[in-house]
Amino acid sequence: MKNNTMATLRYGIVTFKDQRVGTLTELAGGSTRFTYDDAVGQSIACALPASQKVHEYPFGIHPFFAHLAPEGWLRERQTAFADIDRDDDFGILLAFGADCIGAVGITDPGHSHDRVHLKTTTSPIDVAAVNVERTISGVQAKVLCTDNGTGGFRPAGATEPAPFIAKFPEGRLPDMVANEATTLELARRLLGKTEVTQARLATIDGIDGIALVVSRFDRAGASKLRCEDFAQVISHPPGQDHQGKYNVGYDAIGRALGYSAARLLDARRLFKRLVAYVLLGNVDCHLKNWGLVETDEGLRLSPAYDVLNGYIYGDAGYTTRFGLAVNGERAQWEWYDRPLLLDIAQEIGLARRAAEGVLTELRKRRPAVEARLEKGLRLDEGRSWAYRASVAAAWERIDG
């Protein structure tokens, strides 16, 4: 949010599952206030309990709302086409936040989205990203999609359901979506099909290139499910350049799990997933890449998402340090071995005996993973070799 004094302080209507629940308002001095409407008794977020009607945040927009805003590629486009300051989270959400990840939305009585200006030369992917009052968190190029009626996909319109997210590769790493498709498949072999988000490679009508089309677990048909990433759950600020998601340790994971309706079960699921991430080189497992989602039991650990072997891109300038800090520092992927993982298990609240059981369980899945690796990885020869070598090295550190 801008720090300069504003002539007119802005406010937005906050919705939950498409029903009005309150207002988000700018205050003098750069703070914000979220206020529940009088009749609302259901909390919209872990960090915003309805038992407290007014929630003020002194440092700009509250972290729960800030984490609804996009990062990276989508932020650049939405701010450019709507002429919004890149650091103005409030303005981005007023213009594009009517439909966000999860069940919360923000609409602007002043119709900020009317400021969006498209040209006839605007690319189809940019049109899909900015032409509707919808936004998606995350860094990668992505657009909301729906079924095109013939088994394929097209960009979703302004009001129709958008049960899919199409993710596109970075220009200098065209194999990124193929990498993620493969890594998700391997993760299912390690964790089980229901533990990992469903996705497949496909084309999107009118947009060039291959995308990874991900099925959204925060949607059930046309219904929105409450869903919060762990940064939202514990109200952790995005920080400068949105790097706050890395500046925390595994104790933050443990705190977020405290909001699960089945904490011990989810701690075991989360630890198993963490070990799988080490095995598969998924180094970018920062705080926003873990989440809770609404179920019949209450909030539970969401399926795994945003999973790819980022370690093999170290030669392209990508970090090979793991997503969260150990003893105040993000450790290199190579440092993750059996003793370190067992220490982390205790930090997230999982007993050592239970953690040992997880490692034994995963050891039994090793042949299935190795068999899949030998079938081909949709990557070129060099990347395929690096992928297999990284997995083999991780098994040796963890399993011996």
CATH topology of the largest domain: Phosphatidylinositol 3-kinase Catalytic Subunit, Chain A, Domain 5
Beta-strand percentage range: 15-25%
Using only C-alpha atoms, the radius of gyration works out to 21 Å
- Rounded mean pLDDT is 94
Residue windows where pLDDT falls under 50 for at least 5 positions? 1-6
CATH class of the largest domain: Mainly Alpha
Shape: globular
Enumerate how many helices there are, as a single number: 12
Roughly how much helix do the residues carry, as a percent range? 25-40%
**What is the terminal-to-terminal distance?**
50 Å
CATH architecture call of the largest domain = Orthogonal Bundle
Domains (count): 3
How do the strands of the widest beta sheet line up side by side?
4-3-2-1-5
How many strands, what sense, and barrel or not for the largest sheet?
5 strands, antiparallel
Helix and strand pattern: EEEEHHHEHEEEHEEEEEHHHEEEEHHHH
- How many strands in all? 17
Going by helix content, strand content and strand pairing, the class is alpha+beta
SSE order and pairing:
Blueprint: E1 11-16, E2 19-26, E3 32-36, E4 54-57, H1 63-66, H2 72-81, H3 89-96, E5 104-107, H4 124-130, E6 142-147, E7 153-155, E8 164-167, H5 176-191, E9 199-204, E10 207-215, E11 219-220, E12 223-224, E13 227-229, H6 230-233, H7 250-257, H8 263-279, E14 291-295, E15 298-301, E16 321-326, E17 329-332, H9 338-347, H10 352-363, H11 366-373, H12 381-398
Antiparallel strand pairs: 1-2, 1-5, 2-3, 3-4, 6-7, 6-8, 8-10, 9-10, 11-12, 13-14, 14-15, 16-17
